[in-house]
């Protein structure tokens, strides 16, 4: 059975992008601190299904992403006084009092503790351990009464090149293009919320090699990437989905 982190499509929640000039080099865990090329909308579709979503992205006056709006759902991104995301809430537009999903983020030294709302109670689901660049090097996943560890390795562009679990559940290797990753300036927790761990780094993932334990060998998933004249990503396609970015 194929086991690898898929691009998250929660009720076809829109994926996001923003880009800065080539001289930018800030830690992934920080919020954007310079003008960004704002994405106006994004369209997501799933292959084999006649459904999809087009949504808008809302920013505040400091270019922080504060809301994601699709046709039926809104997602609010809440920051603290240090511009760190402390909560992400998703709800249906016609029933805002009922949360579809809610996550809280607590920052302690070199750790980020992530809790998810279950049955009215926020339960810790994972702890990220960060290096001095604000990148996760280890994650403790709380699953039931068990803690499962995963580990991360990077290249010189802070691209995630290897993500693996201590229990053998997942073992992924990532390859990249040489273009700017539109998620690079996203706060780390927002990036993970939208993409799991698949888009960490300066460049775009063009293939994932994963271990398929049903045949006891590695297999590769290739991504088709298209860009505009500024080398910004405009279209992503894999075996599962197509995502188009509009600037």
Structural commentary:
The chain has 247 residues and is mainly β. Helices cover 3% and strands 52% of the residues. The protein has a 17-stranded antiparallel β-sheet, with no helix packed on it. Strand 6 and strand 7 form a beta hairpin. It is globular. 25% of the residues are buried. The N terminus is likely disordered.
The termini sit apart by 38 Å
The number of distinct helices, counting runs of at least 4 residues, comes to 1
**How would a crystallographer describe the biggest sheet?**
17 strands, antiparallel
Beta percentage is over 45%
Taking all Cα atoms into account, the compactness measure Rg is 18 Å
H and E string: EEEEEEEEEEEEEEHEEEEE
Stretches where pLDDT is under 50 for at least 5 consecutive residues are 1-35
Q: What structural category arises from helix and sheet content?
A: mainly beta
| Topology, number of strands | 19
Gross morphology is globular
Q: Look at the structure and give the mean pLDDT.
A: 85
Top keywords for this entry?
247 residues, mainly beta, globular, disordered N terminus
Summarize the structure.
The protein is mainly beta and about 250 residues long. Helix content is about 5%, strand content about 50%.
Topology:
Elements lengths: L17 E2 L17 E2 L2 E6 L5 E8 L5 E5 L3 E7 L5 E8 L2 E14 L2 E8 L2 E10 L5 E8 L2 E9 L5 E6 L5 E6 L11 H8 L9 E8 L4 E6 L1 E4 L5 E5 L3 E6 L1
Antiparallel strand pairs: 1-2, 3-4, 3-19, 4-5, 5-6, 6-7, 7-8, 8-9, 9-10, 10-11, 11-12, 12-13, 13-14, 14-15, 15-16, 17-18, 18-19
